[in-house]
Amino acid sequence: MLALLVIALGLASRRSFSPFPTMLGNYPGDALWAWVVLLCVVWLRPAIARVRLVTWSLVIAFAIEFLQLYQAPWMQALRANKLAYLVLGNGFDPLDLLAYVLGIGVGAVADWSWQRWLQR
């Protein structure tokens, strides 16, 4: 459920009814995308240690961002698909890496807070 909420918020951040200030541009959506990466990693490996969770999430997010430097025709054709475009993006932006760090950091703090709340 959280992943669906984060995805919906991320998609909304790319529209005119965004809950984020327009001066932030697309970066809130990028941070939320990275949070979804973290949620996917934890879904695949629920017992993963938090440090590994953050590390793997950053590796995946950074790898996908650097993959945007690869502009082969077949990759561009793949990115023409809306779902593939949402996952793979198009066009490298080094500031996206900072947004990914922030998104994964927020996700890790939320995960840690949730675990602490459950232990009470």
Automatic annotation (TrEMBL):
Protein name: DUF2809 domain-containing protein
TM stretches of this protein: 32-48, 55-77, 97-114
Lineage: Bacteria, Pseudomonadati, Pseudomonadota, Betaproteobacteria, Burkholderiales
Pfam family, one: DUF2809
Species, as recorded: Comamonas resistens
Record carries keyword Membrane: yes
Keywords noted in UniProt: Membrane, Transmembrane, Transmembrane helix
